[in-house]
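Hey team,

Sharing the tRNA 5-hydroxyuridine methyltransferase run so nobody has to redo it. Sequence (212 residues) first:
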Amino acid sequence: MPTNKQYIQDLYSLNKQALLLEEMEHYASLHSVPIIERDGVELLKQLIRLHKPNQILEIGTAIGYSAIQMASANCETQITSIEIDEERFHIASKNVEKVDMTDRIHLILEDANQYLNQLKDEQFDFVFVDAAKGQYQSYIEKVIPFLKTGSLIVIDNVLFKGYVSKEVQDDRKRLMKLGEKIDRFNQWLIKHPELDTTVVETGDGVAIALKR
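Structure output:
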């Protein structure tokens, strides 16, 4: 059982974390850093509370926003988070230090595909993907062998602001093509023989895949 002193320290930690998360949201908005939307992160946290994963792999750290949110949802969880952008990696490292989570959130500065290619006997029971959207299929293909039966994969931005369903159409060809690529990925994911997948219209679209 926690002591009164530990209880008070935990309360202060929660306040510090809430303030930092607000600052991170503001920073992301000002600097166009893609982070998961608020309703999406609430779904992500609830899945972690229910699933109680021991080892989470996050592909796409950005500034550490989702990693800190996931760690706050389950105090027993260990998170390995991969980021390719050096500037964002250093910002994330500082943010993780500010909430005293360096013992639970392990940041790696590397291309996610290269990191996944180097895996040997690691095991994860939860994966969160929020990185280069054109690489989603590659990430999933490479991570599946390292997932236990019953593991969850959560993927953000699978509706991509309406470009996937073509609810939004404009003359920005790059976004239209990316929407088409994500659509092909979604169809591949739904049909994958090792996964049971649900797509929910939360945030920017979230896919939840269960490893059979």
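Residues 36-211 form a domain with the Rossmann fold fold (CATH 3.40.50.150).

Ping me if you want the raw files.
A.
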